[in-house]
Amino acid sequence: MKKILSLLAFSTAAFAQHVEIKQAKGPTLAYSTQSSVKIIKKDGLSFKDLNKNGKLDIYEDWRKPVDVRAADLAKQLSVQEIAGLMLYSGHQAIPARPDGYFAGTYNGKPFDPKTMDASELTDQQKKFLKEDNLRHILVTTVSSPEDAAKWNNKIQAFCESVGKGIPANNSTDPRHGTQARAEFNAAAGGLISMWPSSLGMAATFKPELIQQFGRVAAQEYRALGIATALSPQVDMATEPRWLRFDGTFGESSKLSAAMAEAYCNGFQNENWGAQSVNAMVKHWPGGGAGEAGRDAHYANGKFAVYPGNNFNEHLIPFTEGAFKLSGQTKKAAAVMPYYTISWNQTKENVANNYNKYLVTDLLRKQYGYDGVVCTDWSVTGDHKAMDVFIDGKVWGVENLNMAERHYKILMAGADQFGGNNDMKPIIDAYAMGVKEHGEAFMRARMEQSAVRLLRNIFQVGLFENPYQNPAETKATVGKPEFMQTGYQAQLQSIVLLKNKGNVLPIQTKKTIYIPKRFIAATRHFLGFPIPASNDFPINMELVKKYFNVTDNPTEADLALVCIENPKSSIGYDKEDVAKGGNGYVPISLQYSDYVANDAREVSIAGGDPLENFTNRSYKGKTAKTRNITDMELIEETRQKMQGKPVIVSVNVSNPMVFAEIEGKADAILASFGVQDQAILDIISGKAEPQALLPMQMPASMQVVEKQKEDVPFDMECHVDAEGHRYDFGFGMNWKGVIQDARVQKYK
């Protein structure tokens, strides 16, 4: 057997190298030269002595089944070590932010790019790894793929050097979105491959395409040192105003189930191994029925409601998709419940993470799911505000203290606490359980979760080799082949909604007018101010490669107006409270001011310790959108063009009321987070549109108010001047309305 010493270009001597041992009849092993790990040889094979006891333990024997290894290690762990496994870190950027939310320090100082290495571990990371035994880390932004690989190696060497040598299981939220203005070049790579949003992938109606995405993304994730994806989000988006609509696969349970299965198959691979990435499917039992579209990240949106008695259909993307994989991995490795209280669907109106019926009785017993259940982030934090994104989300259990919240989640059947770096409340919860049930019961309960958590680390090969080669990472992540595949998916995700007089495609180099787009000042979801801007909404240098460009409409052959769907509020307004109201306001899907005269007189759900009422109705109140200027821009451009074609490109994150703008456009394209170049390729005829709407487009806001939050396909849809109905499954190509096998299968 051959030893290969990999010298990695770290800025410090600590954990600067690892040893690889390649075997003809076994997995490649790797360990840090700084960790005191030795190699045990038996039967002509090599094994890592992770606990440094000089003998081959069952959990160190890679020949043994994963569950056997996990059970052996779980029995060896102390309660404190198991509590550490149950932690899932808060958001970790590489390097850490110098201030604000999720900030970190290096030897007590904020990161300085001139003097510090971005791949170093923060003070906070060293603490939670060593003192709290944390092994599950959520990675957000990274300065470069190489930095991510180097950081991973330092994390893994640190973990390998302490305790039983349990490696870190690094994870990420979806990170394959696009940079709209970036130019695509088939021969060039990037920082990571770029794909349309989940809603855009759904618009392809091609599960095989998202399975291909999963396989590409898994390779990139593993090269970055990431072994768990906090995705896919498979909530049925039956409420068109929901703020997380664009993270879903639309409102069809059948299409969502097919996409969920394909996504998990792609990430987890046909068989578990070093190329697999654990998929954490979310959000059980479905969060897409938030009352009036409000979202449960906020206290004002804590309730999912079921006026159509359609709770069970929301389970289908899980039970018929993520839990029925065609590959040998069989089921998504983990499940994340949502923040919402599924109003009056169980005996107690508490958040899904705390609900024993939903986690143990329904998920585990009825559907036989024995994978990891991880809470969503910050579900145990204190609740202090009605409209703050990072507020604690203890919906329905606000009266419990920190230890009691953790204990209730444990007893509900969850295994892990998202966004918690501190093991103390888990230890306190354990003590509560010992007092109520005895030590043997609680020890068994802790080991049960430990086995599940360890299984997900074993099955992706991290115990054998958690290390990355930064040079290989650079060559893998965003390589040209992956960029090409992602770009082709973008082209397949754009929906042609209208093409009056076959104005598209524009196959000759005509002269185009593109007006600047005003964007009003707003705030980032974390509260940071975003200043107003007035600029071209598309990469004009790219446009010049397709068309002649003019800033004089009278000289133009056609106009292209690039906008977004209407952007409203979160459904809550402090100014309304200041005026004596209850704070609840409409969420609008139209550009012009909307008065909610058709809203419910009395809300279905309500109640919060910070409120002295339960009726959350907003009937009669007015909603304004911050981008009404998008509608005005189309009107102004129409007038300036004096009858010449106006093409409208809408970046869509939610259903919208097209009645306000459709009549003023000759052609309409709906896209879902793609590069500008993909839109230009469609307009110019270099590619033909082939996508279909994964949701309905409502005829009016009155229609939206009357639909039921939990029921799909219950809206009257917009009918355009050509007589086309903007319904689920509608889309056009150059020949007209698409009627292919995809439409028949899912509609």
Task: Please supply descriptive tags for the structure shown above.
alpha/beta, 6-stranded mixed β-sheet, 28% helix, globular, disordered N terminus
Written description of the protein model:
There is one protein chain. The chain is an alpha/beta fold and 747 residues long. The strands form 10 sheets. The chain has a 7-stranded parallel beta sheet. The protein has a 6-stranded mixed beta sheet with strand order 17-28-27-24-18-23, with helices on one face. Strands 1-2-3 form a 3-stranded antiparallel beta sheet. The protein is globular and about 85 Å long. The N and C termini lie far apart (57 Å). The model is unreliable at 1-16 (pLDDT under 50).
Set out the fold topology.
Blueprint: E1 2-7, E2 17-22, E3 29-32, E4 38-42, E5 45-49, H1 66-76, H2 79-85, E6 87-88, E7 91-94, H3 123-130, E8 136-142, H4 145-160, E9 169-172, H5 198-203, H6 207-224, E10 228-229, H7 253-268, E11 278-284, E12 303-304, H8 316-322, E13 334-337, E14 341-342, H9 356-366, E15 372-373, H10 402-412, E16 417-418, H11 424-437, H12 439-458, H13 470-476, H14 480-492, E17 495-499, E18 511-513, E19 517-519, E20 522-523, E21 529-530, E22 533-535, H15 540-543, E23 548-550, E24 558-564, H16 574-578, E25 594-595, E26 622-623, H17 628-641, E27 646-651, E28 667-671, H18 676-683, H19 701-706, E29 732-733, E30 736-737, H20 741-746
Parallel strand pairs: 6-16, 7-8, 8-9, 9-10, 10-11, 11-13, 12-14, 13-15, 18-23, 18-24, 24-27, 27-28
Antiparallel strand pairs: 1-2, 2-3, 4-5, 17-28, 19-22, 20-21, 25-26, 29-30
Helix pairs in contact: 1-12, 2-12, 4-13, 6-7, 6-13, 7-8, 9-10, 10-11, 11-12
Domain Glycoside hydrolase family 3 C-terminal: 494-733
Keywords: Glycosidase, Hydrolase, Signal
Enzyme class: hydrolase
